[in-house]
Amino acid sequence: MSGGEPPDFAERVYALVRRIPPGRVTTYGRIARAAGAARSARMVGWLLHHSPPEVSDVAHRVVNRNGELTGGWAWGHPAVMRALLEDEGVTFVDEYQVDLEKHLWDPLDELDQSG
DNA sequence: AACATGACGGTAG
DNA sequence: TCTACCGCCATGT
Fold it and tell me: Domain Methylated-DNA-[protein]-cysteine S-methyltransferase DNA binding spans what residues (predicted)?
């Protein structure tokens, strides 16, 4: 078997999503950028839609660039996703829009701090 | 193989 | 503020 290949984009995305701290949120674009494909935000969304339980368990911390719960229907209704976020202390500026200014977590910031 | 769609993002008008 | 278009690329028809 060939070894030494770089990790798949999917695995990088999943790893980043799992590192999102509770009470914080990030965006598809930020994850895509941190994974090395800034213009593949759609792939991040697609991957989360097909993510294993280990990842989908914290996927509610991923919102779109406007802080809207665009993936909320994955829980049956955006209200469920909102409840999960509120339970972690995330505040909202609208029915289904989180306060990005207040809770945004950038994966690149993590990489810069821990090296 | 061509076309449409999608848990997106950025730019242009 | 809102609409439209492009880029990205896996999946379904």
Answer: 8-90
Phi, psi of A62 (to 5 degrees): -110, 120
For strand C, the positions having any atom within 7 A of a protein Cβ are 7-10
Q: Tell if A46 CB is < 7 Å from nucleic strand C.
A: yes
Q: Determine the CATH number of domain A9-114.
A: 1.10.10.10
The separation, in Å, between residue A1 CA and nucleotide C12 C1' comes to 32
Question: Hey, what amino acid is at A69?
Answer: L
Residue numbers 19-38 of A with CB closer than 7 A to any atom of strand B: 27-29, 32
Residue A34 has pLDDT above 60, yes or no: yes
Strand C lies under 7 A from the Cβ of residue A39? yes
How does pLDDT run across A49-91, given as a tens digit for each residue? Answer: 999 999 999 999 999 999 999 999 999 999 999 999 999 999 9
CA of A17: how far to CAs of A1, A27, A54, A57, A111, in Å? 29, 10, 10, 10, 13
Q: Is the pLDDT of residue A26 over 70?
A: yes
